Amino acid sequence: MFGGSALTSHVAVPKRDSVDEIDSDTIPVTYVPARNTIFLSYALAYAEVVGATDIFTGVTAVDYSGYPDCRPEYMRAFEEMANLATKAGVEGTTRLTLHSPLIEMSKADIIRTGLDLGVDYSITSSCYDPDEQGRACAKCDTCLLRLKGFAELGQSDPAPYQNVIA
Fold first, then answer.
1. What is the pLDDT of residues 131-144, one digit of tens each?
2. Are 87 and 46 in contact (CB under 8 A)?
3. 84-131: per-residue pLDDT in tens?
4. Chain centre to alpha carbon of residue 88
5. CB atoms < 10 A from the CB of 12, how many?
6. Which of 25, 31, 141, 144 is the most exposed place for a label (fewest CB within 10 A)?
7. Is the pLDDT confidence value at 24 over 80?
8. Orientation of helix 107-116 relative to helix 141-152, angle to 10°
């Protein structure tokens, strides 16, 4: 088990009253060390085994909490590394491409795209600290950013929350 994060240990998830309180200049305690590197490494290994040339990831660098492994420069560096670290890359038979289609999209843009695709947001959650019933807290960074995205679209988030959101 990995530690060092409010998402993987007993460190409290920060709660705020407003998205304006999120400090985008510091890496938050919810950062999980090397999380996307681990996910992408598994995807890379699988892609190499099955001969895939494309890996897709859902990271975003706009309206996010400041994680270093969600930045465009990290994604470019991982793609470069992937092509240096695989048999197909070294032999020049296949070039792997890492796609991050959401990386430059705001939460509102992502939500709008999901709505256009028919996503039922009432069965989704972004919360870092849901209660025992799975209801979102409405106070963690991801809840606040998600609620802001829905508000920017003039809509209410249909996901269940612990507290009534006006």
1. 999 999 999 988 99
2. no
3. 999 989 998 889 999 999 999 999 999 999 999 999 999 999 999 999
4. 28
5. 9
6. 25
7. no
8. 60
H-helix or E-strand spanning residue 142: helix 141-152
The model carries a pTM of: 0.82
- Percent of the chain exceeding pLDDT 90 equals 63
Neighbour tally for 75: CB within 10 Å: 21
> Which segments of 36-129 are extended strands (E)?
54-56, 97-99
84/106 Cα distance (integer angstroms) = 32
Residues near 158 by Cβ (< 8 Å), separated by ≥ 6? 121, 122
Cα–Cα distance, 90 to 26 (Å, whole number): 37
Q: What is the pLDDT of residue 7?
A: 66
Structural tokens at position 117: 């695709």
Backbone angles phi, psi at 49, to 5 degrees: -65, -40
